[in-house]
Design goal:
The complex is a heterodimer. Chain A is of the alpha/beta class. Chain A is built from ten helices and ten strands. By secondary structure, chain B is mainly α. Classes of the chains: A alpha/beta, B mainly alpha.
Amino acid sequence: MSDPVVKVSGLRYGVGRRRIFDGLDLTVARGKVTAVMGPSGTGKTTLLRLITGQLTPLEGEVEVFGQAVPGLPKPALYALRRRMGMLFQNGALLTDLSVFENVAFPVREHARLPEPVLRALVLSKLHAVGLRGAAELMPGELSGGMARRVALARAIVMDPELLIYDEPFVGLDPISMGVIVRLIGELNDALGITSIVVSHDVDELALIAHHSYLLSEGKVVAQGSPAELRDSPLEVVRQFMSGEADGPVPFHYPAPDYLEQLRS
Amino acid sequence: MMLAPVQRIGRVGVFLGRLLLQCGPALLRPRAVVHQVFNAGARSLIIIMLCGLFVGMVLGLQGFDLLQRFGSEDALGVAAALGLLKELGPVVTALLFAGRAGTSLTSEIGLMRATDQLTAMEIMAVDPLRHVVAPRFLGGLIAMPLLVAIFNLVGLFGAQLIGVQLLGVDPGAFWSQMQSAVELDDVVEGIVKSLCFGVACSLIAVFEGYNAEPTAAGVGLATTRTVVISSVLTLLIDYMLTAAFLGR
């Protein structure tokens, strides 16, 4: 197996007294779709922020393309980020630019391409996500699903080696969700990209993920193919995969005894 | 408890240092800066001209009332010009700028933070300080002296309207006394003040927006802080500069 694109080992991170990761280990294999799943609040988005160098771990190592991310000087960090693309939960399109200019934005910033070449490049990426006809619209005129597809076109316009998806299926109707699922799989296969998908949509991830990690209480509690996770004997995995309301992840937030609280 | 304001002043200082480093590269994209001069300046024009007119008219009324007690109503032009050039023009414009353009800058940048637009830029290896903040800071900085000049012109027109047209001050005396009494130093004082207020108000507006908590309440709080801090800072700097100019 070739070197992993992302390697996280012994990661510890917390905010104030709250410990989010306590010895997390995880690797992302080249050319594969790796899913990171877990209940809300387990720090999935925080993990992405640590991988992209927006946050610094308290302890442990985060390596991307063989480079240690924490402590990387800004120019080196920016050089590393040029090899990545990221799809944000809400798209994060620049609201004062048109769809075309949003997709062209990173290219204008990092490459001096002649205008006809830039136009052809941007239109090809918009065509890939099915929105070539929406090039002149403003972000405010797009539906949630369209905005996410434009953001996906922007994420791939610099031909990244690593694509990171933060909750790509949240708030989408079934058709838009199906489109995004298909695009993630196709882009990964056609462009040879390595993908990390953070989500808690088990069924959608099962369609595209080669390998999955399930996080809980700051650690990886299970990993394997989606089928392996479904067959896992671990109670916490079964609860998550089948969506049971109560179990190792309790329904109730920690609270004093109900009757005592009512009497007090 | 006492450390928090000092920490914040330190953070503003560090932010200003980082921002100034990005102003050079931002100037290489003059279109973005001109766009922000339009946003901060042209869009504030109506409120600035309207307020300038009323302030000038009040100056005309009050100045005439005061000067006629000493039989010196012909000096109304000098009083209005010096009052506007040295104090009212820069100060009132800065206060209006904080309320109109400053709040707009803070909420715009704050909402970009709240909707992950700034984070997306960082992930695309684009420094938001260079691309978003520096052009807006420079736009405000350039717009402020221009707005002050327009405020002064309209204010003088208002003072003339009341003094000369309504109350009968001799127009020749009004303009000639102004011409002979107002010196270059007075104009320089006004320009220096407007530049300092431009730096202060623009800096506070972009700092508060850039560091706003990424929630609706956070952006609202940052906008309020922009108005309050900019206003207090404007009056504080005004006092310090006035004392410095008088002490020369």
